[in-house]
Amino acid sequence: MRVIESESKQGAYIIIIIGLITAYFGFYILTGIVLLVLLAWLFFCSSKLINPTMPDAIVSPINGVIEHITCNQDCVEFSIKAQMNGRIYSPSDLYNISIKKHHGFYFLRTSELSNQLGVREFMSAETTLDGEKLSIKIEVLPRMLRFCGLYDGKLESLFLEKIGFLNVGLLRISIKGQNLKVLAKEHEKVFGGSSSLVAIEKISE
Question: TM spans, by residue (predicted)?
Fold first, then answer.
């Protein structure tokens, strides 16, 4: 399905106003070009194609490349390097959401220093997957400029609902629970709302 982002409506309104002005003055060729620009804006810049392949799994919340996967007992953490224009989507139905913001500095590159002193935002939430209760933590580490953040003030979020935006930087998502099965691999390209990260492994009795 294709989702039209709500914040992109302002840009669409501006393009429509320009088109009406050019049509009023009789510049019909220019009006046609403006309409093509509007279609391109809505299709390429203002919308996101989401095709969830495994709704019974925790999916990647953002487009990017998995830089590192850490497995520690009942916890799995994914470090995902975000691509440009990276919308952050809810990886599952989330509830009991809490968000914390850590003020700091902006760095050009990812390093231990930037991870400690850089701007960060944290989201902790709970979800249920195949009857198993899981804890999810999402950490956003922006780079360069702050064109990003997690939406504050929400206690619940439905699967694939937009929960934030990360332009350039790193996103870490950790899932804690029982019988976790890792489906993704390091250095693999993932797509927000589509690529599966973790599922519940069925234990045969």
Answer: 12-44
Residue 16 placed within a domain: yes
Q: Which domain holds residue 146?
A: 58-199
pLDDT in tens, 47-63: 555 555 456 899 999 99
My answer on whether 45 and 62 are in the same domain is: no
Q: Looking at the structure, tell me whether residues 11 and 66 fall in a common domain.
A: no
Please state the domain count of the chain: 2
* Secondary structure, 3-state, the chain: CEEECHHHHHHHHHHHHHHHHHHHCCCHHHHHHHHHHHHHHHHHHCEEECCCCCCCCEECCCCEEEEEEEEECCEEEEEEEECCCEEEECCCCEEEEEEEEECCECCCCCCHHHHHHECEEEEEEEEEECCEEEEEEEEEEECCCCCCEECCCCCEECCCCEEEEECCEEEEEEEECCCEEECCCCCCEECCCCCEEEEECCCCC
73 and 10, same structural domain?
no
User: Taking the model in full, what pTM does it have?
Assistant: 0.73
Same-domain pairing of 89 and 150:
yes
